[in-house]
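Standup notes, structure subgroup. Blocker cleared on the flavin mononucleotide input:
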Amino acid sequence: MNLEQKSDFSRGWRMSVAPMLDWSDKHCRYLHRLITKHTRLYTEMVTTGALTHGDPRRHLRFDETEHPVALQLGGSDPAELAKCAQLGQDWGYDEINLNCGCPSDRVQRGAFGACLMNEPGLVADGVKAMRDKVDIPVTVKHRIGIDKIESYDFVADFVGRVSEAGCEVFIVHARNAWLQGLSPKENREIPPLRYDLAWQLKRDFPQLTIAVNGGLKTPEQFDEQLQHVDGVMVGREAYYNPWIMQDWDQRYYGGSACALSQDEIELAMVDYMEREAVEDGTPWYAIARHMLGMRHGQRGARRWRQVWSNHKLKPLPAREVWAQARAVLLEDQLKAGDSASA
Ligand SMILES: Cc1cc2nc3c(=O)[nH]c(=O)nc-3n(C[C@H](O)[C@H](O)[C@H](O)COP(=O)(O)O)c2cc1C
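Run returned:
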């Protein structure tokens, strides 16, 4: 790859939405894709066990509009990983990402996730086995250390060895995973963030694509990171406040900002709910739960959210719920307009 091809390749990871179990499912990604066309979207982690023993369609089905979309795998057995990577490619995913950052007990018992950072040789074997099977990029998402290991050498050695197996893209959640004593949620909040280690990785491995993740919320923060690394991955902020992504295509890809208004996006989601109900029997509330952050910070948002999450409305068709949500939103906005002009 020459320098120009290399920078085109890296651009693919400039902005991404993180893999989030139970959150970044296909419905959530459909919403995010209505807001931004270029941002890379990640599935929730799917374990190799779930894919080989369960129903692949349930885990892998996605909408054509979701591209570019990456499948995140959880597992450690190279042969199983290779089989699942192949499945992912066959289903049309654009990337296979290996989870080396999840600290949950369940994942540790399965000996994958963050504890794999202790076994760079095994990760390298997994990456190699997957690359032998698929043509799409095989990437790794990891932490900067585990437990009390704070040294840069630990993560540099991990990245060095895994890159020798052919992994060219590393997504660095810039905090340690503490494998004992913290819940997964605490592990996203308590170990301190050290972006400087991710920046150092980019300096020491300039040929690799390095994206940084963890605690990033504002355009100013994203811009600062992009001075040092190739990409930014955003998790919770994108989920709680998806409209922040409305100008990402313009800001980070030289395209145009989202052409749809929030009202149009909400209506497009109602169309999608109706389609999903017919095609797959999905209830509207399994989809609507992902858009509760859409009106973040707006007048009327609270009552609008209450309608879309009201259990009593579950039997109603999506479009009727939409009409009720719209009515309370407009009412609150009108009230605000009246008091402003009074
Ligand atoms: C609800 C939830 C589920 C998550 N599930 C996964 C997962 O399946 N795989 C993974 O690599 N990280 C997972 N993460 C971690 C995120 O990908 C990300 O690394 C973390 O939230 C830090 O980024 P943020 O501060 O932008 O949210 C999850 C995070 C949340 C909030």
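Discussed briefly. The two ends are 64 Å apart (CA to CA).
Next: hand off to the docking folks.
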